[in-house]
């Protein structure tokens, strides 16, 4: 699976809405903030990744973390597309204090996506 440009979250209003209205799940060292929404171009999910400047001073470290988050999402994306209905906007925030390995990020990403799918399927039933 790829991670095309149309799946990247770039809308500033939606980005702000995610932080104010979005629901969140956490699996250390990643936090997922999500919001059900609608996209006109038929995209199901849009994603943004964030590494905090406060904790990682150099751009090299922040970019590496964001690259790891994007890659972990890209590899585990079929979990979401095969198990949810509706459109969502996601932000993946990195919370750790040190630069992670890919395995740490990948494991947390899988747990987080499973938790999201379980939570969404539970809300659909209620």
TrEMBL record:
Signal peptide: none annotated. InterPro entries: Ribosomal_Su5_D2-typ_SF, Ribsml_uS5_D2-typ_fold_subgr, RNase_P, RNase_P_CS. SUPFAM superfamilies: Ribosomal protein S5 domain 2-like. The keyword Protease does not apply. Keywords: Endonuclease, Hydrolase, Nuclease, RNA-binding, tRNA processing. It comes from the Bacteria. Belongs to the RnpA family. This is Ribonuclease P protein component. The gene is rnpA.
